[in-house]
Design goal:
InterPro entries: Carboh/pur_kinase_PfkB_CS, PfkB_dom, Ribokinase-like. Keywords: Kinase, Transferase. GO terms for molecular function: kinase activity. This is Carbohydrate kinase family protein. The protein is α/β, with parallel strands linked by helices. The protein has one domain: UDP-N-acetylmuramoyl-L-alanine:D-glutamate ligase (3-Layer(aba) Sandwich). A 10-stranded mixed beta sheet has the order 6-4-1-10-11-12-13-14-15-16, sandwiched between helices. A hairpin with a 2-residue loop joins strand 13 and strand 14. The termini are far apart.
């Protein structure tokens, strides 16, 4: 099996997004259009990391259907090493979202039953044990079952690997609770951080203390276009993301932030520089109609960094 520096576990499925053309009218029919592409938190991050020059392997469950073939083709196009656990008699998972005209989410439905079949036993396969042992970074999203996430994080941390998680949603982020101490970083938006902590932080600067109290070693909390906070151990920093002239679609922005941040960490950069890289990567994605922008590259990320201010370190 071809070795990769990064192993990504979790969601690799079909994203369907309907965009309302005018002003949203709740409870009634809204004119708009549909768009379909391969997506999933883990898969978006895997493609971003591959386009940033890393060798990336994606491990996920998949059905034996046309949707699964679409995911396979998207992995090949992005240069991701694809290692699916395929169930020929099942449907590939899907995520269906309704977006307002400005790109913000109205509501979404996630059909993710197939991920339940990714049990901890699957991680005992020799091939997957070797993948984890050979990777510098093991990244998972919260689409997998809680017990599988815990087993994966414990195994990767036990091998001394950098271990990171993507929250995905407020309903799913709580799946990380049994393994928070094994994560190097957890990437969340403010709603997800609130669901995990069980309380709200009035200011961005309050999140590190709240999350450290749960046993989290490091993480990032995004707040839409407002101040973003990152922390690792006793260090923490904040930055206000640069305003964008136009917002194409919010889908995948958090996955891109995690990708840029982790790429910088693998290069040995400090927490402040990692946050700048993450915000720059998110900006590239927010300007794209795709959840994993085809414009993501090391060169374009370097240009986007010029727009991101230096983070302020917190005492």
């Amino acid at each position: 099996m071809t070795q990769a520096d990064i192993a990504v576990f979790g969601g690799a499925h079909i994203d369907r997004r309907g965009r309302i053309s005018g002003t949203t009218a709740p409870g009634s029919s809204n004119p708009g259009s549909w768009f379909e592409e391969a997506g999933g938190g883990g898969f978006n991050a895997a493609r971003n990391l591959a386009r940033l020059g890393h060798s990336v392997r994606m491990i996920s469950t998949r059905g034996g259907d046309a949707a699964g073939e679409m995911v396979t083709a998207a992995a090949a196009a992005a240069g991701v090493i694809d290692s699916p656990l395929t169930f020929l008699d099942r449907q590939t998972p899907s995520y269906t979202a309704i977006l307002e005209n400005d790109g913000n989410l109205v509501i979404a439905l996630a059909d993710m039953e197939l991920y339940r079949l990714f049990s901890p036993r699957q991680l005992q396969r020799r091939a997957l044990r070797e993948v984890i042992a050979a990777s510098k970074l093991v990244l998972t999203d919260a689409n997998l079952p809680e017990e599988t996430i815990a087993a994966l994080a414990q195994s990767a941390a036990g091998n001394g690997r950098l271990v990171a998680g993507i929250a995905v949603s407020p309903a799913k982020v709580i799946r990380y609770r049994p393994c928070l101490s094994h994560l190097s970083f957890l990437f969340m938006n403010e709603s997800e951080a609130r669901a995990l902590a069980g309380k709200e932080a009035a200011e961005a600067e309050e999140w590190p203390a709240l999350l450290r109290g749960l046993g989290i070693n490091g993480g990032v909390v995004t707040r839409g276009g407002r101040t973003v906070v990152a922390f690792e151990g006793d260090s923490a920093c904040v930055v206000v993301p640069p305003a964008l002239p136009a917002l194409a679609d919010v889908t995948g922005a958090g996955d891109a932030l995690a990708s840029g941040f982790l790429s910088a960490r693998l290069a040995g950069r400090d927490i402040a520089d990692c946050l700048r890289h993450g915000i720059a990567a998110a900006g590239l994605t927010l300007r794209s109609p795709l959840a994993a922008s085809e414009e993501m590259s090391a060169a374009n990320l370097e240009q986007a960094l010029a727009l991101v201010p230096a983070p302020q370190m917190l005492s």
